Amino acid sequence: MKYNLLSFPAAALVVGLLAGNPASAQVVTNAAQAQSGTYAVEPGHTQVGFSVLHFGFTNYLGVFSNVSGTLKLDTKNPASSRLSVSIPVASVQTTSAKLDDELKGDQWFDAAKFPNATFESTSVRVTGRNDAIVTGNLTLHGVTKPETLKVHFIGAGVNALDKKYTTGFEATGTIKRSDFGVKMYVPYVSDDVTLRISGAFERQD
């Protein structure tokens, strides 16, 4: 999987200039100004990143992609918002193809037996103008546990490229992989897994 990281902002800038104003002018950065409604995950720009401490030497990074799901966003009553996502475990990618295959195997995520990880929110608690604590049930490796994410609203507006109303968030959190039965090499590869999630959603209604 290869991307030209410069192509996306460059293309958006060109479109904005041709339209006579910058693309950023169409984006609101106050969560209360975003449109309420039902959204679908935009998988091309949604990533579930993770990192573990590898043998005490490096924070090793990986990512899951091809996420699907829905967001019911209520900006007037954020506590009633709901999130449901599904993450195909076999999408895992690191800088090592050999490790990618190992992670999909039965000593790690066992993608053949447990093909998807899911997160279903159960509560949303606003902590700031653009921030909230989202609690929900994470199912991974056949085990379901309550987990908490710190969520930050990035922006919302009409995407200059596809003309779809889009909203974006960043979420962070930490889970213990042993809680989900993924114990290979603990503690040499850390039990704590740091999550950093970039979520893009397109309005459906």
From TrEMBL:
Span of domain Lipid/polyisoprenoid-binding YceI-like: 38-202
Highest taxon of source: Bacteria
UniProt keyword annotations, A-Z: Signal
Signal peptide: 1-25
Transmembrane segments: none
Record InterPro entries: Lipid/polyisoprenoid-bd_YceI, TTHA0802/YceI-like_sf
SMART domains named among the record's database cross-references: YceI (SM00867)
Keyword match Phosphoprotein: no
Statement: the UniProt record of this protein carries the keyword Signal: yes
PANTHER family referenced in this protein's UniProt entry, alphabetically: PROTEIN YCEI (PTHR34406:SF1)
Protein's recorded name: Polyisoprenoid-binding protein
